[in-house]
UniProtKB/TrEMBL annotation:
Phylogenetic lineage: Bacteria, Bacillati, Actinomycetota, Actinomycetes, Micromonosporales
Hydrolase is among the record's keywords: yes
PANTHER family, per database record: GLYCOSYL HYDROLASE, LP05116P
Enzyme's top EC category: hydrolase
Protein name: Beta-glucosidase
UniProt family annotation: Belongs to the glycosyl hydrolase 1 family.
Entry's EC annotation: 3.2.1.21
Record keywords: Carbohydrate metabolism, Cellulose degradation, Glycosidase, Hydrolase, Polysaccharide degradation
Catalyses which reaction(s): Hydrolysis of terminal, non-reducing beta-D-glucosyl residues with release of beta-D-glucose
Length: 424
């Protein structure tokens, strides 16, 4: 059984659904810039309109209510609150999230707010972005503004979403905004994000009594090969993806061997107490010894599993393994803050139903093994702008026609609704 008070939810992110990028005083983000650069996004798509959630949020809240979720995880667009990443709050931006939070509460749905889901204000990027320590301090100030506005109503705070992806895909590989390919020279962005996290935690503590976490994407390591070099590569990947963005938060410092621009007092700021770990899980990662000097490992496609349309292996038991391993390592409460799959099919989508069924069972198994898991959030309620893939990959329980903005619940929406009802 799932424990009393377990939260069933769904997740989204601002740039992926809101649209209205030039409305309400919103400033430009790095994803506005990146998506308009030729060749960056599949089919040349942008998030200019996305799901038009900015105008249609009441319709979307009704979909959430019909689903019967306990909680809705959304993100706040930093450039909608601070168009230039600094200074006073933009009243129109705050008002939008006021309306959204109040609409959720009216339907008995807990608002779960993520402060940063990758849409850094372009003005801060122009001043160095996450390579600059100053961005961490600006993030703390932004958190204080959001906490002052919403701290009495948000039920769970998430500071950062997947800082690993920001560092690796945005600054090491160049596949995401801001599109920098610096390989291991990208590591300062990891430290500055975590410094910003610690400053944000301190700011939120002064504004809200609600618990605080962070949403890290984790991936169990599958070492391909049996040489010492293969095993060393697996350990290096585990340190980068699964430990770098957790252990400093818990006062354990950085994994050995990583060179980061730590100044006196930084680790104390980063280790500001949090109330849980947020866990985003999609699949394990195959790792073998490196074939070049650029990285200490090679990433290898795992064979022998069904694949989503994103080409990701479907491995529910990997989520059980991950949750029990995190419990053994750190002994902290956890929320599964993202779990989902890309499939085009609608209105019937049996593959997504099978995916979700397997993964909620994986959570149940982890709990039976002693892991303290307190919630499960499906990615995502709506088809949306899927970053570098544009609108080509669909994760939604609800199909969105991006030409008409018509929402049509898939069979998986009804399955999740009935599953949630059956747990009560």
């Amino acid at each position: 059984m799932f424990p009393q008070g377990f939260k069933w939810g769904v997740s989204t992110a601002a740039y992926q659904i809101e649209g209205a990028v030039d409305e309400g005083g919103r400033g430009r983000s790095i994803w506005d810039t990146f998506s308009h650069e030729s060749g960056r996004i599949t089919n040349g798509d942008t998030g200019d309109v996305a799901c038009d959630h900015y105008h249609r949020y009441r319709e979307d809240v009704e979909l959430l209510s019909g689903l019967g979720v306990d909680a809705y995880r959304f993100s706040i667009a930093w450039p909608r609150i601070q168009p230039d990443g600094k200074g006073p709050a933009n009243a129109e931006g705050v008002a939008f999230y006021d309306r959204l939070v109040d609409a959720l509460l009216e339907r008995g749905i807990d608002p779960v707010a993520t402060l940063f889901h990758w849409d850094l204000p372009q003005a801060l990027q122009d001043e160095g972005g996450w390579f600059s320590r100053e961005t961490a301090y600006r993030f703390g100030e932004y958190a204080d503004l959001v906490g002052a506005a919403l701290g009495d109503r948000v039920k769970l705070w998430i500071t950062l979403n997947e800082p690993f992806v920001v560092t690796v895909y945005g600054h090491a590989f160049g596949m995401h905004a801001p599109g920098e390919a610096r390989m291991l020279d990208a590591l300062p962005t990891a430290h500055h994000q975590l410094l910003g996290h610690g400053l944000a935690v301190a700011a939120l503590r002064g504004r809200s009594a609600s618990p605080i976490t962070i949403a890290n994407n984790h991936s169990p390591v599958r070492v391909i090969g049996d040489s010492d070099a293969d095993r060393a590569a697996g350990a290096a990947f585990d340190a980068l993806q699964n430990r770098l963005f957790v252990e400093p938060l818990l006062g354990l410092g950085y994994p050995e061997g990583l060179q980061l621009p730590v100044r006196e007092g930084d680790l104390d700021i980063i280790a500001a107490p949090i109330d849980a770990l947020g866990v985003n899980y999609y699949n394990p990662t195959g790792i073998s010894a490196p074939s070049t000097d650029e990285l200490p490992f090679d990433m290898v496609v795992l064979d022998g599993y069904p694949m989503t349309e994103f080409g990701w292996p479907v491995v529910p038991e990997g989520l059980t393994e991950l949750l029990t391993d995190l419990h053994t390592r750190y002994g902290r409460p956890m929320y599964v803050t993202e779990s989902g799959c890309a499939y085009e099919a609608w209105p019937e989508d049996p593959d997504r139903i099978a995916y979700l069924s397997g993964h909620v069972e994986a959570v149940r198994t982890a709990i039976a093994k002693g892991a303290d898991v307190r919630g499960y959030f499906v990615w995502s309620i709506l088809d949306n702008f899927e970053w570098a893939e544009g609108y080509d990959k669909r994760f939604g329980l609800v199909h969105v026609d991006f030409d008409t903005q018509v929402r049509t619940p898939r069979a998986s929406y009804r399955w999740y609704r009935d599953f949630i009802a059956g747990t009560r």
